[in-house]
Amino acid sequence: MEERSLRFLIDFGSTFTKAVVVDLDREDIIQRYQAPSTVDTDVTIGLKQVLAQAQAEIRFKDLVKDSLLACSSAAGGLKMITVGLVPTLSCEAGVRAALGAGAKVVRTFSYELSLFDLVEIEQIHPDIILLIGGTDGGNKQNIIQNAEILANLNHTVPIVVAGNKDARDAVRSIFDSSGGSISFAENVMPEIGTLQVDSCREAIRQIFISHITKAKGIDKAKQIISDVIMPTPAAVLSAAELLADGVEGEGGLGELIVVDVGGATTDVHSIAKGYPTHSGIVHKGLPEPYAKRTVEGDLGVRHNIDTLLEIARMKGSWDHSLFDEIRSRFSSPSRLPENDLEFELDGLLASGGCGYCRRTPLRKD
What sign does the CA torsion over 59, 63, 67, 68 have? Predict the structure, then answer.
């Protein structure tokens, strides 16, 4: 096996740090390894454990830094709020752009921000703020007024401005005076009924690379790896597009859905045009993007066990005698199933996280 053809694809997750080793010459997946994530202490500890597992099995001599690429969702990924104008238009467009970029949208504000809203934003302490509103050539007073409110934040938060392009100069002047950190992207809704999210997604990704990885301690891993190239959800969305569309000389599978059940969140990625299958249907609202992601931030199968069990209790989906069993067996976020019962319990948690609690209730006997 030629070592120069090996690539080590790293994922810093909230629960586990994973590595997949691929051979580019053979176009083959060699092996997958994982270890509990150590992002709260030293992220390189878990990374070195994973690489040690790979070295012991594959027995390569030296790691070439450029052969290690990474994505990350550790410590909850990108916590973002959006500030827009109309909830069903620019605000919705902003949410779609943020989710596609790998963000976890924790709050959406519409119309004019108040000082009360500012206090709430301070308490949320988001990683990124997405400021939007107004079609190009349309309302620009709203986004300018909201920029003036956000300029009073007591802490510096990277702000992506993706609203009415006619308001850019005024918004830039406001944040230049306050010392805020801003970047501009194309309007997510340049005209009514038009969704334009690629530029905004790229701006969010660049902030992730330059700011968030350092804040989460993942910059320490750059001593070992080439780079953290994007948030994990964005990487999964890109992979889903490749799987659906294919590449030159290799056809894809067509429209599909990819469900990523994680320790902290459950993400659903869809690659589809979303055209109606029946005639006579009139489309209302914004068009759906071809590549789309939604996230359930409270439905992870480890960090959110209590939420999943509460949903199951309300639905009456599972035998109640299982609740204490699940809590005791998976009290540690890094706990993996070790026998048939635990695999079955873990499957129930995963199905609950996906919103498909339809299985026959499992009984301990």
Answer: positive
Query: Which residues, including other chains, have CB under 8 Å from residue 328's CB and lie 6 or more apart?
Result: none
pTM of the model: 0.68
Q: Which three-class secondary structure state does DSSP give residue 361?
A: coil
Q: Distance (Å, rounded) from C-alpha 39 to C-alpha 263?
A: 14
Confirm or reject CATH 3.30.420.40 for domain 3-74+216-275+288-296, answering yes or no: yes
- Contact present, 212 and 78 (Cβ < 8 Å): yes
pLDDT digits (tens, 9 = 90+) for 151-204: 888 777 888 888 888 888 888 888 887 766 788 888 888 877 677 778 888 888
How far, CA to CA in Å, does 330 sit from each of 81, 256, 314, 326?
31, 31, 21, 6
Per-residue model confidence (pLDDT) at position 244:
92
Name the residue type at position 275.
Y
Gap between the Cα atoms of 214 and 16, Å rounded: 19
Classify residue 294 by its DSSP letter.
E
**Rg from Cα positions in the chain:** 22
Q: How far is CA 265 from the centre of its chain?
A: 9
Q: Which CATH superfamily is domain 78-204 in?
A: Flavodoxin domain (3.40.50.360)
Of all helices (H) and strands (E), which one includes residue 292?
Answer: strand 291-296
Tell me: pLDDT of 210 over 50: yes
Distance from C-alpha of 130 to C-alpha of 144, rounded to nearest angstrom? 13
CA distances from 319 to 108, 345, 364 (A): 37, 11, 9
Task: Domain ranges for the chain, please list them.
Answer: 3-74+216-275+288-296, 78-204, 305-353
Supply the DSSP symbol for 264.
S
**Three-state DSSP class for residue 268:** strand
Can you tell me the distance from the alpha carbon of 176 to that of 181, in angstroms, rounded to the nearest whole number?
8
